Amino acid sequence: MKVAFNRARDRAGLEGLRFHDLRPTFASRLVQAGVPLYEVMHLTGHKSFEMVQMHSHLAPDFAEKAIQALDAFGHVLVTAENENAA
């Protein structure tokens, strides 16, 4: 794999690029695709959840998805905005 990567890197004119440099992009793309951070952590080989959390900002709708999951069970998230309206 190392030989194939180095050959592709050289053909692309990306001297100095290391295979490890692709790790953040790999993690970012997984997060953007909705893969849970715990799974991303294991796929990327991060040793801690905190190390992979830096990629969570790439999925701005993750909180909305979590709220929708709760709403599916009939729960309504109470926020300061809708609490004042009640």
Structure description:
With 86 residues, the chain is an all-alpha fold. 58% of the residues lie in helices and 0% in strands. It has helices at residues 2-12, 23-32, 37-44, 49-53, 62-71, 80-85. Helix 2 runs antiparallel to helix 3. The longest helix has 11 residues, at 2-12. The radius of gyration is 19 Å and the shape is elongated.
Order of helices and strands: HHHHHH
Straight-line N-to-C gap: 60 Å
| Unreliable residue runs | none
- Computed CA radius of gyration, to the nearest angstrom: 19 Å
Count of all domains: 1
Morphology call: elongated
Percent of residues in beta strands: under 5%
Question: How would you sum up this structure in a few lines?
Answer:
The chain has 86 residues and is mostly helical. It is 58% helix and 0% strand.
Features:
elongated, 86 residues, 58% helix, mainly alpha
Strand and helix map with partners:
Elements lengths: L1 H11 L10 H10 L4 H8 L4 H5 L8 H10 L8 H6 L1
